[in-house]
Amino acid sequence: YAMLLSLIFLIVLVAAVVGFVFRHEIKTNFESNLNLALRHYNMTADRHSEAVDTIQRTLHCCGVQNYSDWERTEYFTQRGIPRSCCKSQDDCSAEDLKDPSKARLKVFVDGCFFLVTSTMESKMSVVAGISFGIACFQLIGIILACCLSQYITNNQYEMV
């Protein structure tokens, strides 16, 4: 049991170190994937388009760096900026979304990349604290399992 807990502890420790060391690559990869999702965005409700819509609605953002990122997409030439960027769904017409100057007043202007990464970084202290607490319990479990094993081994020799 102690060996199993030790193995799990080492896996979690390695994952934390790798995540910390490669955090910049994770950001770069997220940005490129978000750009790719914008380029392939469509209304057929695939999971990438739904993810983009959910991020934009939840974080009140639009595009990767800002709302003008949509102007370089095929979707914009056909339908304009997506409705998930609108500040108010009632005050956002299709004509407004096709005109970037009018859309600026109707949609969120901040990009999603900065908001997502800043939200993740702000929550990292909570994640680190919980992970540290779990690691402490694992270490206590490892120590107690070793003590129990030692106690069982010592008592077997005394019983004879």
Automatic annotation (TrEMBL):
InterPro entries: Tetraspanin/Peripherin (IPR018499), Tetraspanin_EC2_sf (IPR008952), TSN6/7_LEL (IPR048232)
Cellular component, GO annotation: plasma membrane
Transmembrane segment boundaries: 126-152
Signal peptide bounds: 1-19
Subcellular location: Membrane
The keyword Magnesium is annotated on this UniProt entry: no
Its membrane topology: Multi-pass membrane protein
Keyword Nucleotide-binding: no
Record key words, sorted: Glycoprotein, Membrane, Signal, Transmembrane, Transmembrane helix
Domain of life: Eukaryota
Broad class of where this protein is predominantly found: membrane
Function noted in UniProt: May be involved in cell proliferation and cell motility.
Protein name, entry field: Tetraspanin-7
Organism of derivation: Rostratula benghalensis (greater painted-snipe)
Organism lineage string: Eukaryota, Metazoa, Chordata, Craniata, Vertebrata
Gene responsible for this protein: Tspan6
